[in-house]
Hints:
- The strands form two sheets. Strands 3, 4, 5, 6, 7 and 8 form a six-stranded antiparallel beta sheet that branches. Strands 1-2 form a two-stranded antiparallel sheet.
- By secondary structure, the chain is α+β, with helices and mostly antiparallel strands.
- The longest helix has 14 residues, at 63-76.
- The chain is 39% helix and 22% strand.
Amino acid sequence: MTKHNPYNFLPLQPTGRNETDTANTYAPEDMIKIYEQQFLIQVPEKELTEFLPALKAFYDIDNHTLDVSAIIFDAIADSAIIYNHKIKVGDYQILGKLIEEAIEYDESAENEEIQAYTLECQRTFFINDIEIPYHFNLFIYGDGYSTLTKKETVLERMYWFVRGRFEEELLDDSEDNDSLASINAQLASLGIREMDLTTVDEVISYVENSIIDDPMVDALNNLLDDAE
């Protein structure tokens, strides 16, 4: 007999029953899929109260199972859920060569031997499994670095939209930034559901914390060693 599936839940195979025989058990990777569906399936507002009971009934699970699925997701998932969107970090690419920059020092400077470089880079992100590149120029100065994001892809435009809202008085070109409506139109063209202001802010916070990881740092250090 086919189960009632009004929300197109993913068919998953249980591994058994729990100790009290009150709910199905599932493999960890399937628990992650159950957790994600709570947030990623689009549900009409009038059906919100019906959605969670339908999910639990379809998989024959209880609230404890949902709690455990959240714990498993936080422990082993390679993505993050930000409101109703899943975001995942992809690979990095170094697109250009290390360019040595000339730095002007004043007479009292103590770090005249520190060299500065710029490097063109890209990090791939996935929003709801849609691949979006994020290009940026990396400025390296001694042990520190800063980034300058380009303004081409929707993710890059989201960055400037967020920065423009919080630093409007500091940015001369803030009027050139996209509006939320424009960003959502670009997302819609990619098949990504719309975002509100809070979601955009959280997504960009996630991106900024993820563009440079340990493997990329190792690669950058190798480039710097070769340059010296």
